[in-house]
Amino acid sequence: MSIKENLLEIKSTLPEHVTLVAVSKTKPVSDLMDAYEAGQRIFGENKIQEMAEKFEEMPKDIQWHMIGHVQTNKVKFMAPFVSLIHGVDSLKLLKEINKEALKNNRVIDCLLQMHIAEEETKFGLDDAELDEILKEVQNEKFSNIKITGLMGMATFTENQNQIKKEFLHLKAIFDADKALNTKNCQMTTLSMGMSGDYQLAIDCGSTMVRIGSSIFGTRN
Ligand SMILES: *Cc1c(COP(=O)(O)O)cnc(C)c1O
Questions:
Q1: CA 148 to CA 86: how far, in whole Å?
Q2: SS3 147
Q3: Which of 101, 128, 175, 211 is the Cys-Cys partner for 144 at CB 3.0 to 4.6 Å?
């Protein structure tokens, strides 16, 4: 099937309240343009340099989401245009995003990435770190960022029960923090689910899925 057919088929199965991020990392601009021409406007990349290059080349009504781990020294390269940063997992990073957003006279939306998987290698915050960051944000210390929700990645496993348990855990944290409602913290987005597990993620309460290989084909 073509990129367009893959995209339209996936979109037809998504409930209306679920936003699709087309994960286009490693793929050439021509592939992204196929998706663009089929109506897709939100693209997810995991390397800042690659995202910045694609941003330069492609139509300006695209929303660019940074879904990968972010190094603080590279925030400045995406601050002028990034639409949502999914992987915020430290206060230090949040401070840097705030600083660069201020320089660009923007407010940048961010998701806090929670560690929900069993693997040690996946990035993300634990409950105590989340509370610490939310406390700082509540104190209105950051004028140029807005926390709009949470993101998480389940363990890489065939075990559906385990994945489900991890997604429900993240949903419970999301629900507990949804009541927080200050100028720069409004939790409306729960980013969870990829090609292999997005249907399960939606059943567990996801509002944003990040799908790559099921749209663009496998990556090298
Ligand atoms: C690559 C990636 C995805 C998409 O993965 P697929 O399995 O290709 O759908 C989603 N989220 C993150 C954080 C990724 O790095």
A1: 10
A2: strand
A3: 101
Q: pLDDT (tens digit, 9 = 90+) per residue, 25-84?
A: 999 999 999 999 999 999 999 999 999 999 999 999 999 999 999 999 999 999 999 999
Are 116 and 163 within 8 A, CB to CB? no
User: Is 117 a member of any domain?
Assistant: yes
pLDDT tens sequence across 181-216: 888 999 999 999 999 999 999 999 999 999 999 999
Measure Cα distances from 209 to 13, 90, 107, 181, 190 in Å: 12, 23, 23, 24, 9
Quote the ligand 1 centre to 117 CA distance (angstroms).
15
Q: Report which protein residue has its CA nearest ligand 1's atom 15.
A: 68
Q: Which domain holds residue 93?
A: 3-213
Residues with CB under 6 A from ligand 1: 23, 25, 46, 67-68, 153, 194-196, 210-214
The b-or-e profile of 123-148 (16+ CB within 10 A means b, else e) is bbbeeebbeebbeebeeeebebbbbb
Burial 72-86 (b: 16+ CB within 10 A, else e): eebbeebbebbebbb
